[in-house]
Specification:
Helix content: 40-55%
Radius of gyration: 22 Å
Distance between the termini: 33 Å
Shape: flat
Order of helices and strands: HEEHHEEHEHEHEHHHHHH
Number of strands: 7
Strand order of the largest sheet: 1-2-4-3
């Protein structure tokens, strides 16, 4: 279960509590409840896989203390599919433990969807107008936002600076449309000599309000270069897959994957968490209850890919058998996880407009 799916599960639990009469809240007239409930890894003092503050959001409309709202919601949430346990901590945080088997289901889903893992129809039917100056960084950022909005089922229309004042939009704007003026801090010099991939990374990796660094450091093939680490990690997952095929075994994310993976170990557990968080990251291009895309999403995606790459590189040596060791279920499960990570790295780079080579 991904954070996006868990958010929907929590919302369904809230609606069940309201329908059962356990919680007196007018969901239709409630401005404080977003379309998506925030779920995230628990903070200090928390437990489990994820935590949500939905009880604190509902406390005022329900006329109840947050702790009481959490107590009402817990039984409606604890019996939901994919949830093993729910614990209440602090003033009313719901801490959620997912079922065993979620690791195998997650890996299988990523392998099935491939680089399109995390795509959804969340923004279906919505159109966003981006007003873009004739600036290379703004153009690249607009192209990225067009790609990621499309990955969530929406569409972007571009207007360049001259047409903003000299002509009307290409079609009448409906109430549902939103207009965003893109004004990222321009690059200090022309990034074209870096080549298309390094140039896009240099322009998208910093937040829009930070000045990008245009230098040959984006081209060096060593650990100090984040782009190299991401592409190298992807290439290594593909190399491991080829090596496994030479040894006669393939990825096998079965129901035993969770037993075959040491999910209590830092490497595998972190990789699963990062994979599960990928759809939430993509869907956050238009935050809950916001009307326009967030131009800060590319820098968050690049950081996510770097963390994922740094987590998978030390894991990859455990995938293949060593010496006279024969391939086991554990090796097949680890290979499936490595393939899933490779698919997410490739998909993330594709959204950034950057190539993900199999050989590097």
């Amino acid at each position: 279960m991904t954070p996006v799916e868990l958010s929907r599960t929590v919302l369904h639990a809230v609606r069940r509590a309201v329908d059962a009469g356990d919680l007196a809240v007018d969901l239709h007239g409630l401005p404080g409840l977003p379309r998506r409930v925030s779920v995230a890894p628990p903070g200090a003092g928390g437990h489990g896989d994820y935590a949500t503050n939905v009880a604190l959001q509902l406390a005022r409309p329900a006329g109840q203390p947050p702790l009481r709202v959490a107590e009402v919601l817990r039984p409606h949430l604890v019996h939901a599919a994919g949830i093993r346990d729910v614990e209440i901590t602090g003033p009313g945080f719901l801490n959620i433990r997912l079922d065993r088997g979620t690791g195998s289901g997650l890996v299988q889903r990523v392998l099935t969807e491939g680089p399109r893992y995390g795509y959804s129809d969340l923004l279906a039917g919505r159109v966003f107008v981006l007003r873009v100056p004739y600036d290379v960084r703004a153009e690249v950022l607009a192209d990225y936002l067009s790609r990621i909005v499309a990955s969530q089922g929406g569409r972007v229309e571009l207007q360049h600076e001259e047409s903003v004042t000299s002509s009307a939009p290409s079609r009448p704007l409906s109430v549902a449309d939103a207009i965003l003026d893109l004004r990222p801090l321009p690059a200090p010099e022309d990034p074209t000599p870096l080549g298309p991939d390094a140039a896009r990374w240099a322009l998208l990796h910093p937040a829009p309000h930070d000045r990008p660094r245009i230098s040959a450091d984006h081209l060096v093939q060593r650990e100090s270069n984040p782009l190299f680490r991401v592409r190298y990690a992807h290439a290594r997952t593909r190399a491991v897959h080829r090596n496994a095929a030479d040894l006669g075994f393939a990825p096998l994310p079965t129901a035993d994957t969770d037993a075959d993976l040491d999910t209590s170990g830092p490497d595998q557990a972190q990789l699963l968490r990062l994979l599960a968080d990928h759809p939430r990251l993509l869907s956050s291009v238009v935050p809950a209850d916001a009307t326009r895309p967030d131009p800060g999403t590319p820098s968050r995606l690049t950081r996510h890919l770097v963390v994922l790459a740094d987590a998978v590189i030390p894991f990859l040596p455990t995938v293949l058998p060593r010496g006279a060791e024969r391939p086991s279920a554990a090796h097949r499960a680890r290979l499936a996880l490595a393939d899933a990570v490779g698919a997410v790295l490739a998909g993330g780079l594709s959204l950034l407009g950057i190539d993900a080579p199999d050989h590097l």
